[in-house]
């Protein structure tokens, strides 16, 4: 028995450590969301985005002074690099296109920049509200459908633990965005919805093996639900890693070589895919095993064949072995 288990990676043995790491990541993410907050693109809150290119040695302070003099009260300014030249990405709360263009032109003129050195994009608050409502609805519908599918295909407990892992991935991803102050755009929302699919896929693959093994495994080795979960994870872990690697390679290429639009999508995808792979064996399966072990059937098997029972049997055998050795 021991030799067989030694060939498995002991995920369940270290479940408390894995869950502790996940809990720490979630707490840090929540702290980031509260302390720093999320930066939303103008698509969500409405406003103006001005992309200044080839600005040379102009500093953020000079750009801010130029914009404030035009009437912009509190512009958000970030440095950018386009085609190897320095620039600035400016976001303001101005929602009137005419006013936004006038302010951008006045600021560019005071900094000796021509019209070719900036572009202005203005989005009204109504459109931003529609995008926000549609995004929230999409997340809500997706979660309800996930619960329904997993509950019908497997069982309700699996659906709840799958959602717990999914929420873990989304919260930590948003925490990364909060700490890095990266803007949330519609591309990021699309990536988050895609992440839900990847995260659910890895979890369902593990749950499928766990469900089948719990019904058919009769080798006399994997008796408890923790043992069955651990064996099931080891059965699919290589497949999970291969899927993750083949998926993140093009994502990394998009992140390094793509334009601003692709980078928004790729950054969220990279963080989310790595978290989805991790949470499937570090969050979903441990939580499921802990919950299932409270059922009478699995509780009895855990008491008879679990870690505590194995430790007790080793303690009983050890004195006998010592006596034989002495003889």
Walk me through the structure.
The chain is 72% helix and 9% strand. The chain is of the alpha+beta class. The strands form 2 sheets. A 4-stranded antiparallel beta sheet has the order 3-4-2-5. A hairpin with a 2-residue loop joins strand 3 and strand 4 (85-92). Helix 4 (60-70) packs across helix 5, helix 6 runs parallel beside helix 8 and helix 7 (156-180) runs antiparallel to helix 10 (260-292).
Keywords:
single chain, alpha+beta, Multidrug efflux transporter AcrB transmembrane fold, two-stranded parallel sheet, 72% helix, 9% strand
> H/E series, N to C?
HHEHEHEEHEHHEHHHHH
Text of the CATH class of the largest domain: Mainly Alpha
Please identify, by name, the CATH architecture of the largest domain.
Up-down Bundle
Q: What is the quaternary state of this protein?
A: single chain
CATH topology tier name of the largest domain: Multidrug efflux transporter AcrB transmembrane fold
- Radius of gyration, in angstroms, nearest whole number: 27 Å
User: What composes the largest sheet?
Assistant: 4 strands, antiparallel
Q: Helical amount among residues, as a percent range? A: over 70%
What's the number of extended β-strand segments?
A: 6
Mean pLDDT figure: 85
> In what range is the share of β-strand residues?
5-15%
| Overall form | elongated
Distance between the termini: 27 Å
Helix count? 12
Number of domains: 2
Name the CATH superfamily classification of the largest domain: Multidrug efflux transporter AcrB transmembrane domain
Q: Uncertain segments of ≥5 residues (pLDDT<50)?
A: none
Category by helix and strand content: alpha+beta
Strands ordered across the widest β-sheet? 3-4-2-5
């Amino acid at each position: 028995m021991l030799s067989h288990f030694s060939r498995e990676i002991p995920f369940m043995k270290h479940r408390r450590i894995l869950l502790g790491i996940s809990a720490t990541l979630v707490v840090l993410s929540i702290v980031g969301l509260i302390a720093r907050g999320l930066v939303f693109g103008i698509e969500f809150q409405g406003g103006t985005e001005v992309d200044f290119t080839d600005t040379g040695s102009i500093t953020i302070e000079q750009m801010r002074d130029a914009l404030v003099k035009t009437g912009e009260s509190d512009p958000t300014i970030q440095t950018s690099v386009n085609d190897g030249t320095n620039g600035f990405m400016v976001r303001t709360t101005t929602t009137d296109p005419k006013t936004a263009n006038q302010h951008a032109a006045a600021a560019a003129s005071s900094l000796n920049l021509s019209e070719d050195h900036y572009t202005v994009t203005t989005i009204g608050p109504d459109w931003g509200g529609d995008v926000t409502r549609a995004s929230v609805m999409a997340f809500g519908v997706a979660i309800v459908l996930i619960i329904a599918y997993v509950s019908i295909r497997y069982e309700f407990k699996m659906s709840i633990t799958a959602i717990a892992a999914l929420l873990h991935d989304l919260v930590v991803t948003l925490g990364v965005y909060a700490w890095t102050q990266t803007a949330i755009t519609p591309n990021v929302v699309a990536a988050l919805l895609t992440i839900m699919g990847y995260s659910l896929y890895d979890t369902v693959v593990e749950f499928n093996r766990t469900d089948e093994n719990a019904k058919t495994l009769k080798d006399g080795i994997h008796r408890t639900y923790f043992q069955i979960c651990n064996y099931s994870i080891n059965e699919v872990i290589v497949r999970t890693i291969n899927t993750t690697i083949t998926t993140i390679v093009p994502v990394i290429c998009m992140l390094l070589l793509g334009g601003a639009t692709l980078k928004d999508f790729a950054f969220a995808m990279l963080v989310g895919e790595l978290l989805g792979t991790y949470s499937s064996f570090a969050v979903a399966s441990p939580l499921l095993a802990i919950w299932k072990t409270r059922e009478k059937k699995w509780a009895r098997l855990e008491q008879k064949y679990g870690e505590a029972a194995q430790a007790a049997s080793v303690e009983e055998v050890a004195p006998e072995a010592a006596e034989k050795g002495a003889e």
